[in-house]
Each structure stands twice: as structure tokens, then as C-alpha cells.
Fold:
Amino acid sequence: MNKNEFEFIMDMAIASEIEAYQFYSEVVTCVSDPSLKQIFQEFAAEEKGHQATLENLKTMEIQNFTFTVTSDYKISEATELPRLSLKMKPAEAVALAMKKEEESMKLYRGLAAASADPEKKKLFDNLAKMEEGHKTKMEGLYTMTAFPEAW
Structure:
């Protein structure tokens, strides 16, 4: 993979994080519940952090770009995508964020599967692992929010 292809892929990933940040920031203005506002403000801040991480990775050599595999309990896959609403409950807000991370993970996995170039495949696989890590974090938060009796 040449430098331009790498930069294009990283720019696409960064744009995805910016889009997620904008989405969560807009949700903050739509919900009235203070705890939901805080949850979505935290999600927005995380996406800003993801953007910064990717911008830093963009300057690195591709062989230095790796994420570890996380345990995937498939909670997101077993959860319905809630509709964005002014009357959302905190568990629904976390489920929405969790599903967004799942979508990003699946996108990168699909791009990895479609890549003939081993370097592009590795890059997309690593981006998928990064998103899977975000999803796993959201799944833990969802479990604590939706099923407090389990804790």
C-alpha cells in the first residue's frame, strides 16, 4: 500500500470519528434528561479522543499500527437499535452508542475482507479491532445500566 492509500484510509476513519462526535453532540442538544446529556457528552468526548488517536496513528508506519483483540460477548448484536428520542432512558442511550460502534466495526471488517492488498487488510483489521474495543466498553456500560441487578 502506498502512502496516499494509507492516508486515504486513515482520513476515512478520522471522518467516521468526527461524524460520531457530531452525532453525539447533536443528541446532547435534543435530550432533556441531565443524566442522558452527560452520557452523550462523554460519548462525544470519547469520539474526539478516538479522532486524536487516529490522527496520531496516521503519522506512524503501518507496521506499528496494532490493537489487541478484546473479548466480544455479542451484547450489541443481541440488542435492538433504539430510536433516538427526547424520552430515551440511559440504557437506551448507551445501547444506541453501542450499536454505532458495532456498525463501525462491521464496516472495517467488511473492508478488510474485501481488500486484496495485505497491508490494507491489516489496516482495516486493526481499525475493526479498535472499534470492537469501543463496542466492548459500551457493552459493559450497557450491562451496568440496563441490568443493575447484575452488579
User: Anything to note?
Assistant: Helices lie at 3-30, 34-58, 90-114, 118-146.
